[in-house]
């Protein structure tokens, strides 16, 4: 794919090239009301201000809907549907392209540029969607296998249902936060001696605080209750993708999760990256996922197998002393089930999906030791230590540790489609 | 408790005596915009219209907030806090009492009575809250024990964590519906031969469609992320209670639920009763729950043990031929954990609770065969049949079956505090 050249200065290597145009919610010191923007290079284009100054004069389809850009979430814009997202993205690309056919919209209007283009360092990012329901899947086959081996041995590592349906559970929507929000170490019930016959739990700060490297996808089309989303229409119900860190309290989880699944171990915080990369922008990076050697039921069978994304993912851990170590590098193609499959399965019962619902992929791990998306897998459930630069070691996360997930598609430094970062730092537990 | 006498005609035996004053969301043929009302006898008092006609003239505290009564959900009213709910309820009771000190507010204003008092048969009820997150607990000890015996035998019926923490899981908020909404039998993956070594699932209409008799409680106070709700403050964070039927697809659940808990088995519909009975109205019916013979950690320990409600619950099944059978009668005191305990546990990690969040109690069963809150327990997971009047039999629900849950506190027919009904009828599965 040849890169689009722009009259606007977009730094080489930027995640937000003209090939991307991700959407997010910003506010600024001078205008504190959250509103819709796109990222271009190291600037945000304030779409509320752009629309108010007649920036969409050459795009008649969006004009009746311009109020969506003044909303404090992307829900209203997303609800307009994939074809509208597509024309808006293409229009913005054309406005910024070197040989734009609309030079007077922005290229030659220096006053407007000053008004609507805000350096990213000066914007505050907000949660991009008002999330009605959040569902976390478990589609990372290598992760599920690694964890299964730790707890049940290699013969029974995967449950019998694993390759037949995208295993998932309902998560907690209220604790999904935007990148940069501090995460407080949770208190909860843990067993100090899990092997003891008589189980005696104590209330304690979580001692096995972990990360989960995931993708999140946002729904942009509702279905009526009782009417499943057919697999062939599922892709068209997905708005775009973010990076996600599903913080996990392994010791709380081990004690609580039988028989109804993880609860408190997962409800204290889930961090997502701030800029939502549109499905359209990711289309050139579609690829096959992991091979499923089971027969998949028709309601989950996709015509096109290339419904996964090849996003280069990286996880960095920075200790309170400032030393940073890359602890994982992998690709998001390491999934057994695609987002369209998750959506088709989720709704096969007639479950009503709503605009702004968030689907988590499950932890993404590759096959190699350096490709694991959770500390649990890296330290074999606490048996070994993870060596960090600067001589530090970790089993699980310490107070003050900062986790940064980054993700990017492509190799042309002038046409990257990236997600920026998904960052969270651990604060000490509340004294109980 | 002596009954409050009213100048207004409230039928003897009404669930909505002057001792109750439950809140709900109504619309009418002549005014289709949903708004807040209370139920009194067999009428709804339209609080939007009442406020607009200066009905709250003698209650200065509510006057700056009267816009809450024009909302399409109770969230804004609930967010005003327990002291305000209390004064509004007491004011309405005093307006309706025989010897009201405000006779000209309504008692002697016949025109206003016509305007604001609508027969319940002429109102359409809506979902009372905009539910951000819905969490379903499992606090019905007898139910958990009965189900445990069916699947694991009496020795291991309860998991080791059961008496130490209120087991719960995050549910699906988007499919919580108001009483009367039809429930379509879900399709999903089931094993036709669960005992076979090689597990081969098929897509099928659920064959083991079940009910779960539960209470639901709504949250009226948010906590900041990272800051647990102390057990001593949890009761003050609860708005009120509804009846709940947590429809469950047992065959889908059996195949999907390991290791992350029920998902599709629970996301196709959860029915709640339309009128929310305030915590204040239930206060006279507080009682102890089931005894917990484990040592409970301090963050779950309540000063007062009487934090459960003695609500007489009943489940009726009506077949398509019109025969109706009472299939269960029990009391809501059959719980091991109270709603304040559930809230304290839910938030101990710092999970942010929001106004409008719904907490489900878990299935409520007594000790006797006629007191079981699910068909699964009644039919011993399909081994026996439930005999219905008119000669019908059931293992699980058939198409066209209608389930009605009712619940009421008290025995003075002029001072009942009841919930009305929680009704749902099963529609045939969609042909796939
Ligand atoms: Ca996860
Ligand atoms: Ca339940
Ligand atoms: Mg999480
Ligand atoms: Mg349900
Ligand atoms: Ni009347």
TrEMBL record, chains A, B:
Quote the pathway field.
Amino-acid degradation; L-phenylalanine degradation; acetoacetate and fumarate from L-phenylalanine: step 6/6
The UniProt record lists the keyword Disulfide bond:
no
Q: What keywords sit in the KW lines?
A: Calcium, Hydrolase, Magnesium, Metal-binding, Phenylalanine catabolism, Tyrosine catabolism
| Essential cofactor(s) | Mg(2+); Ca(2+)
**Active site residues of this protein:** 143 (proton acceptor)
Task: Provide the reaction this enzyme catalyses.
Answer: 4-fumarylacetoacetate + H2O = acetoacetate + fumarate + H(+)
* Residues involved in Mg(2+) binding: 246, 266, 270
Which residues are listed for substrate binding in this entry? 138, 152, 253, 257, 363
Q: Which Gene3D superfamilies match?
A: Fumarylacetoacetase, N-terminal domain (2.30.30.230), Fumarylacetoacetase-like, C-terminal domain (3.90.850.10)
| Domain annotation Fumarylacetoacetase-like C-terminal: ranges | 137-423
Q: What is its EC number?
A: 3.7.1.2
**Domain Fumarylacetoacetase N-terminal spans what residues?**
19-128
Q: Which GO terms describe its molecular function?
A: fumarylacetoacetase activity; metal ion binding
Database matches in InterPro entries = Fumarylacetoacetase (IPR005959), Fumarylacetoacetase-like_C (IPR011234), Fumarylacetoacetase_C_sf (IPR036663), Fumarylacetoacetase_N (IPR015377), Fumarylacetoacetase_N_sf (IPR036462)
Q: Name one GO biological process term.
A: L-tyrosine catabolic process
Q: Which family does it belong to?
A: Belongs to the FAH family.
Query: NCBIfam families per the record?
Result: fum_ac_acetase
Protein name, please?
A: Fumarylacetoacetase
Species source reads: Clohesyomyces aquaticus
